[in-house]
């Protein structure tokens, strides 16, 4: 295993860089995906002061279960004095966040490099 890479799960490649945990979600994040992703995100957000980036740039569909997954991760992170940032440039996902008012609850940035101060470009695993 390469250093800094956590084993990938079906929807959840995870890597660590610059003191941040970067979770790259992809595909359709619906109830079926949420059942797979939820427990892993719970584990990631269980540690105190964990800094997490959820990269949504490869997500093509997000439903109410997917939104709840993001909200739960944000709440768990905040409750443990952590920090959670979303990365997304997908117009449909950004529109969904705006329509639901969640764009005010999350920090949303265009790239992982923008989310992690001083990191420069982050190579995919």
Biggest sheet statistics: 6 strands, mixed
Strand content: 25-35%
Task: Give the quaternary arrangement of the chains.
Answer: single chain
CATH architecture: 2-Layer Sandwich
* Chain-averaged pLDDT: 87
Pfam family, one: STAS
GO molecular function: anti-sigma factor antagonist activity
Family: Belongs to the anti-sigma-factor antagonist family.
Organism: Streptomyces spectabilis
Task: Set out the fold topology.
Layout lengths: L4 E2 L7 E4 L2 E10 L1 H14 L6 E12 L1 H16 L3 E5 L3 H10 L6 E3 L2 H4 L10
Parallel strand pairs: 3-4, 4-5, 5-6
Antiparallel strand pairs: 1-2, 2-3
Helix pairs in contact: 1-2
GO molecular function: anti-sigma factor antagonist activity
InterPro entries: Anti-sigma_ant, STAS_dom, STAS_dom_sf
Protein name: Anti-sigma factor antagonist
Characterize the structure shown:
Residues 10-119 form the STAS domain. Belongs to the anti-sigma-factor antagonist family. This protein is of the alpha/beta class and 125 residues long. It has one domain: Transcription Regulator spoIIAA, CATH 3.30.750.24. 35% of the residues lie in helices and 29% in strands. It is built from four helices and six strands. It has helices at 31-44, 64-79, 91-100, 112-115, and strands at 5-6, 14-17, 20-29, 51-62, 83-87, 107-109. Strands 1-2-3-4-5-6 form a six-stranded mixed β-sheet, with helices on both faces. Helix 1 (31-44) packs parallel to helix 2 (64-79). It is globular. Mean pLDDT is 87; it is low at 1-9.
């Amino acid at each position: 295993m390469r250093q800094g890479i956590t084993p990938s799960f079906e929807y959840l490649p995870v890597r660590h860089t610059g003191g941040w945990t970067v979770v790259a979600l992809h595909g359709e994040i619906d109830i079926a995906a949420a059942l797979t992703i939820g427990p892993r995100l719970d584990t990631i957000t269980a540690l105190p002061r964990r800094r997490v980036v959820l990269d949504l740039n490869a997500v093509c569909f997000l439903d109410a279960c997917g939104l709840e997954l993001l909200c739960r991760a944000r709440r768990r992170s905040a409750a443990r004095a952590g920090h959670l940032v979303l990365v997304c440039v997908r117009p449909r996902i950004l529109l969904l966040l705006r329509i639901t008012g969640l764009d005010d609850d999350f920090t949303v940035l265009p790239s992982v490099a923008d989310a992690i101060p001083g990191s420069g470009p982050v190579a995919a695993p």
